[in-house]
Amino acid sequence: xYQYWNPEMETLPRRELEAWQLRQLKTMVSYALRTPxxxxxxxxxxxxxxxxxxxxxxxxxxxxxxxxxxxxxFPYGFLSIPKDEVIRLHASSGTTGTPTxxxxxxxxxxxxxxxxxxxxxxxxxxxxxxFQNMITYGLFTGGLGFHAGAEEVxxxxxxxxxxxxxxxxxxxQDFGTTVLHATPSFLLHVESKMREEGVSRESIKLKxxxxxxxxxxxxxxxxxxxxxxxxxxxxxxxxxxxxxxxAFECQGKDGLHIWExxxxxxxxxxxxxxxxxxGEIGELVLTILCREATPILRYRTRDLSxxxxxxxxxxxxxxxxxxITGRTDDMLIINxxxxxxxxxxxxxxxxxxxxxNYLIVIEKDGMLDRLTxxxxxxxxxxxxxxxxxxxxxxxxxxxxxxxITINPRVELHESGSLPxxxxxxxxxxxxxxxxx
Length: 436
Ligand code: ADP
Ligand code: ZN
Known about the structure:
By secondary structure, the chain is α/β, with parallel strands linked by helices. It folds into 2 domains: 1-329, Rossmann fold, CATH 3.40.50; 331-430, 2-Layer Sandwich (GMP Synthetase, Chain A, domain 3). Helices cover 30% and strands 23% of the residues. The chain is built from 11 helices and 20 strands. The radius of gyration is 22 Å and the shape is globular. The termini are far apart. The model has no long low-confidence stretch (mean pLDDT 95). Adenosine-5'-diphosphate (ADP) binds at residues 92-96, 140, 212-215, 234-239, 301, 303, 324, 327.
């Protein structure tokens, strides 16, 4: 039932997988010692050559690398090979500040493509599929990364990019698209637009979608699956670790397999930096094992996740992580209460009458913070009939309050009226003055 792209690596016994990791880690350390950043950093931690790494335990001697380090190292502080050997660069989206840059040689691109192909094929796709890549192309890794991986699998690739839903529908109908890649927020937008433009589900052949690049809840996944009648697979990656292809759901759709022949994953308590226990949520720390041109060791992703303790029924030996619930720096403090935007999403997306888009607004009201949750309403609710609207508003408010312990204001908006972003969704507007 399950299909593996690289059966040997995907089911490698853990001991062999760890031996592979140690070999690759040594290689990465030797490349790192050619970069200005690690030439300075590693010897101070007692690592002067790859011979100082004798077991995987020695990873712990390597200091963490942060996003700030990458910014300080811009543009070439993390480059380990002569520029002539570099064939491509990518950058992060800059969601939280100045983007960071990574470089690839030919072999790095080949290996990255292999990981993405592995993810895609593991969901049941094959060369008969038609793949529409509805994501930003360009410096963002999601476009070209998926494009190459899908070609490697042999699918017909439509590099449609993001936006212009009318044209996207036309492409789906003309070429019989079976697989989409998009952000979950754009998939929800596509579904609303389909209804608005009267595109019938029968006129398109969609079977599945890969959704990633931003956090989303299980309820959002279910909503997309039910509305579009497709299977949705969670795709996780970040430019510092190549981009897509770091962790992906298999057909079990329960946690994301992190490809441990390409990455060493740790989960640490973000405050103490001590390892989290299995199953405990913490910050994901990743070491790349498959990129010579820009080796990045023990990178603090700021993404929050947890390891699964049980092996997966699919037979892959690579550990699974929980879907990312948010970033450590996403956390909002509202009147002293800590809150992640994902907690709000989880609640509102589980309410069926709520539409496909929402926005969280925080303002100052005198000394206090005021939280407003704006949501669109579903297609069955009429905006001029106040009684059901009031009932829905009250239902959302009550459900939110009992879950997040903050009493929010709730505003209902017509379907399609809240802003849709082309890249990653911007769900939070924090209008509070800084330093108050
Ligand atoms: P930026 O950090 O500027 O957004 P990237 O474009 O490299 O840079 O995006 C990587 C980040 O996107 C990850 O660190 C994570 O926060 C988020 N992300 C990517 N995929 C997922 C996913 N499936 N679920 C949750 N968050 C994700
Ligand atoms: Zn699995």
